[in-house]
Amino acid sequence: MPSRTLPAFRSLGDFIAHLEAADELVRVSEPISVVHEMTEIHRRVLRGNGRALLFEHAVKADGARSEMPVLVNLFGTLKRIAWGLGVEADALPALGEAMAELSRPEMPDGLGEVLRKLPLARAALSMRPRQVNGDVDRRTVLSGEAVDLTRLPAQVSWPGEPGPLITWPLVITRGPEAGTPENVGVYRIQILGRDSAIIRWLPHRGGAGHHRMWRDRGMEMPVAVVIGADPATMLAAVFPLPETLSELRFAGLLRGERPRLASCVSVPLRVPADAEIVIEGFVSPTQTAPEGPYGDHTGYYGDVESFPVTRVTAMTMRKKPVYLSTFTGRPPDEPSRIGEALNILFLPLIRRSFPEITDLWFPPEACSYRIAVVAIDKRYPGQARRVMLGLWSILPQLSYTKFLILVDHDINVRDWEDVAWAVSTRSDPSRDLVVIDGTPIDNLDFASPKLGLGGKLGIDATNKIGSETERKWGRRLAMDPAIVGRIDEIWDRLGVDPRASAARGAA
Ligand SMILES: Cc1cc2nc3c(=O)[nH]c(=O)nc-3n(C[C@H](O)[C@H](O)[C@H](O)COP(=O)(O)O)c2cc1C
To answer: Active site includes 296?
Structure first.
């Protein structure tokens, strides 16, 4: 991995201290309700790429003062997400390269190879968790009658939602077979009462898969939910990592030190020792309850659906815990900002399968994954279609990308003006559309004809070459670079509208 340029944050507290020293966190002392008010403030600050917010006097949904402060907008900018991973934002592409290298471990074929791969091998060793016992004793432990989820300042983000929701939980599960790695995913949790809740995992998530395994054996599944941990662990939980790689170990790699894990007090699972709040319990194999409707990252209310009920057996917390929260809604929201970072980090991995891809952009406004614009260095007829079909199949997450727009590498995929120009000048609807139906689609996509099953559209907006066209193709207008240079030189003397200077050199 590229060397960290930031300290190894062991806890959320370490990261908060770093943000505060860098003037990236604001403390809000005004009492603010977790019901709607926090969302509205967060939404405005996030849209303006603002700082993280620590509400010191949050008011809970029941009207009582919260005993703990509420932190929101922690990962509201690309800069803070990169810091959470230990690097500056401009080092994210290099981190992505290192991650791509890691996900394809190859046997070294010779001593030279071993030496070249040594930094990675050493890094991989750092992933082995270290068991920590001492810290647990210093935590507040609530068990039995004392368990009370309503002590948490859980948000009600949007009007019409049925009750408080834990929005940033790290849900830790493992399969019933001994020795399988644990999974960590962020799945929202509806609080039903003092000791019961519903975890909403989409069917293809790691937690849902584990629950199916326990359910098939007729057994309750142990679960541990962490609210607030070191930033690398929280971000690793959101990464689409292969099932065989534990997010906790991967977080250790990002931090550059072995993860410190502590045993839970009432379930056979381990959690980050420095977690702010841990909720332990068992997920029923049979009992379900209706969840929602809640605001989704699509900008709509989701459906009411039944999910298994979790019985809470214990809660543990630091002496002065910080409660981490967020809202999900129409982009931009925090998950869409994290999506932008993932776009940068996973591009190198995708390019290993398709080296002709020069750039790829998931516009956040299209819910982070529903539209992708892909630039390729096109060499042969049909290449754009090959890349489309490949992308739709290479990662489960990419099967939810309903629209793929393929352009040449002279087009800036992040610039809709450029993309619209390419679509309108380089594609023809009778020849350049690829339409497929009956493919897997996001369950949250209510526009698809059936739940989980919908279509795909590919637009080949690349220049047509070889047998792709019998027509004489257009030649792109371009100004003589010598003239561009000369006008650049005399520009300031001309005294023409200075706002026009941004358009210098454009054809
Ligand atoms: C703030 C936030 C909330 C999320 N809420 C959910 C959710 O309610 N259900 C879900 O299935 N995924 C949700 N996700 C996405 C998953 O956490 C993410 O895709 C993760 O990689 C899943 O991990 P897994 O592949 O190990 O299951 C959320 C992500 C974030 C950042």
So the answer is: yes
Question: What pLDDT, on the 0 to 100 scale, is given for residue 450?
Answer: 97
Residue with CA closest to ligand 1 atom 7: 187
Whether the Cβ atoms of residue 462 and residue 384 lie closer than 8 Å to each other: yes
Structural class in CATH, domain 354-468 = alpha beta
Domain-wise residue ranges, the chain = 12-324, 354-468, 477-507
> Which residue is associated with the tokens 């201290």?
17
Tokens, residue 456: 């795909």
Does pTM surpass 0.85?
A: yes
Q: How far is residue 208 CA from its own chain's centroid?
A: 18
Strand order in the sheet with 52-55: 25-28, 52-55, 70-72, 323-324
95-148 pLDDT, tens digit per residue, is 999 888 876 655 445 544 544 555 555 565 567 899 997 655 578 999 999 999
Index of the ligand 1 atom closest to the CA of residue 184 = 26
Count CA atoms closer than 13 A to 126's CA, side-chain side: 16
* Per-position DSSP letters for 348-413, written without gaps between them: HHHHHH-TTEEEEE--GGGTTTSEEEEEE---STTHHHHHHHHHHHHSGGGGG--EEEEEETTS-T
Given a cut of 80, whether residue 12 has pLDDT beyond it is yes
Task: Tell me the best of 171, 189, 238, 245 to mutate to test the pocket of ligand 1, counting ligand atoms within 8 Å of each CB and taking the most.
Answer: 238
Domain 12-324 architecture: Roll (2.30)
Could you tell me where the DSSP H helices lie in 11-153?
12-21, 37-47, 78-84, 92-102, 111-125, 134-137
pLDDT digits (tens, 9 = 90+) for 275-284: 999 999 999 9
**Ligand 1 within 6 A of 338 CB?**
yes
Given the residues 195, 230, 274, 296, select the one marked as catalytic: 296
Whole-number Å distance, alpha carbon 110 to ligand 1 midpoint, is 41
How far apart are alpha carbons 14 and 234 in whole angstroms?
Answer: 14
Query: What's the confidence (pLDDT) of residue 114?
Result: 47
